[in-house]
Amino acid sequence: MKIKESPSRKVFMVLNYIFLGILAVSCLLPLINLFAISFSARSMVDANAVSFWPKGFNTAAYEYILSNKQFFQSFAITVLRVVFGWAINLALIILVAYPLSKDNPRIFRSRKYYTWFFLVPMVFNGGLIPTYLVVSKMHMVNSFWALILPEALPMFCVLIMMNFFRGIPKAIEEAALVDGANWFVTMWKIYLPLSKASLATVSLFLIVNHWNAWFDGLIYMNLPEKYPLMTYLQSVVLKFDITKITSEQLMLNPHLVDVTGRGIKGALILLCTVPILMIYPFLQKYFVAGVVMGSVKE
Q1: What residues contact 220, with CB distance under 8 A and at least 6 apart?
Q2: 44 in the same domain as 182
Q3: CA angle 184-189-193, nearest 5°?
Q4: pTM of the full predicted structure?
Q5: 26 and 160: one domain?
Q6: Residues 86, 83: Cα–Cα separation, whole Å
Q7: Which domain holds residue 70?
Q8: What integer is the mean pLDDT of 186-200?
Q9: What sequence ranges are listed for the domain ABC transmembrane type-1 (predicted)?
Q10: What pLDDT, on the 0 to 100 scale, is given for residue 89?
Q11: Poorest-confidence range of 28-32, 85-89, 256-260?
C-alpha cells in the first residue's frame, strides 16, 4: 500500500534534493576545471580563459606525463601498496576484532586487558620522531614495507568490525560450536559471510587511505624513484616550474612546448584521482544496503 506524503514532507524532499544537488555540483566543478585546463592550449591557460570547457584542445600534458617513467614507477608502487596493505590490514582487523567482540568473560577472560592494550595507543601515540626512529632501527627506510607495517592495524576499523560482530545473534555461534565447529571455523564460515557490508565499508576506508597517503612516502623514502603516487604528485604540485625547463629538456620532451605547469598539474591530479573513483561504485551498494545487509532477522 502506498503511503500518501504530506505537503510538508514533499517540500522537505524537494529542498533536500536541491541542496544535495548544489553540494554535488560544487564538488564536481573543481575537477571539471582541472579537466578543462589539462586539455587546453598553453596560450588559453596563460590568459586565464579556461573555465569548464577546454579551449585550444590538445593532449600535450597527458603525453608528457605518460612519457615520464617516474609516473609509472610511483603508480606501480601505490597499486602494490593498496593490494598488500589492504590484505594485511583486513586480516589483522578481523583477527583482533573477533575475539574482542566477546563480552562473556568465560569465553575471553583477558579481554579487557587486550582492549586497553589496543585502545591506549589509539589515543596516545608516540609521535613522528619516535615512529621514524623505530622504522629506521627496523631498517625499513627506503623500503616498501615502511608504507604498510607502521599502520598495519588501524584501530578505528577494528572498532567498526568489533561492533558489527557484536550485533550478530549469539545463538548462531552457539549452534555452530555445539555442532563441533571451533572458533576459527565459526569466524570464517559464519561471521565473515554475515559481515559483507561491514567488510566492504572497512575495505573502502583502507583502500582510500593507502591510495591517498603521501606523508609517509615523503619521510620514509629518500629516493624519488621509490615515492608512492601521491608523494610524487605532491612533489610535482609544489616543485614543478615550467619556466625552469632548459633547452636540452625541451629537445628530449617536445611536448613541453605546448603545456603549462597548471596543465601538467591538472592532468596529473586527474590521473591520480580517476582510479580510486572507479573503485567506489563497486562498493557503494553496500553503503546503500547498510550494515543490515546479510544479517539475520530475529
Answers
A1: 132, 135, 140, 141, 142, 143, 146, 147
A2: no
A3: 125
A4: 0.81
A5: no
A6: 5
A7: 59-298
A8: 86
A9: 71-283
A10: 94
A11: 256-260
For residue 199, give Cα distances in angstroms to 101, 243, 251, 288. Answer: 15, 48, 51, 14
- Grid cell, residue 105, equals 568473560
pLDDT tens digits, 52-80: 888 878 887 888 888 888 889 999 999 99
Are 44 and 55 spatial neighbours (Cβ–Cβ below 8 Å)?
yes
Residues 75 and 207 in one domain: yes
Q: Are residues 35 and 101 located together in one domain of the fold? A: no
**What is the domain count for the chain?**
2
Do 20 and 152 fall into the same domain? no
For residue 180, what is the DSSP state? T
Which alpha helices (DSSP H) does the chain contain, by range?
7-38, 42-46, 60-66, 69-100, 111-123, 128-137, 155-167, 170-178, 183-186, 196-212, 215-220, 229-239, 247-252, 261-289
- If asked whether residues 13 and 91 sit together in one domain, one would say no
Residues 157 and 262 in one domain: yes
Q: Is the pLDDT of residue 119 over 90?
A: no
Residue 298's nearest CA partner among 189, 159, 170, 193 is 170
Whether 36 and 68 map to the same domain: the answer is no
All three cell numbers of 205, joined, read: 576506508
